[in-house]
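wait is this the right file?? whatever heres the structure
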């Protein structure tokens, strides 16, 4: 398994909170007819962009922790 795949696998705990957030902020408004409003697309873009940013920051954090744990951070 590639190192990136292993890091992504370590972020599985984020799946439930992000899914719940997306359901509340996107699926429920769509079900209530908000998709017909012109500003909903902008809202959806910010929500999805925020989720991507959170996952990216978490991925960087996991990578840094892995580097520190394996002593690659410090020069020998």
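ok assuming it is, sequence goes like this
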């Amino acid at each position: 398994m590639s190192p990136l795949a292993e890091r992504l696998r370590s972020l599985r705990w984020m799946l439930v909170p992000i899914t719940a957030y997306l359901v509340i902020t996107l699926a429920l408004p769509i079900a209530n007819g908000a998709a017909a409003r012109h500003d909903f697309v902008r809202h959806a873009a910010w929500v999805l962009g925020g989720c991507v940013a959170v996952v990216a920051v978490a991925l960087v954090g996991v990578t840094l922790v892995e580097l520190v744990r394996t002593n690659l951070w410090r020069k020998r």
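DSSP finds three helices and no strands in the chain. so i think its the right one actually
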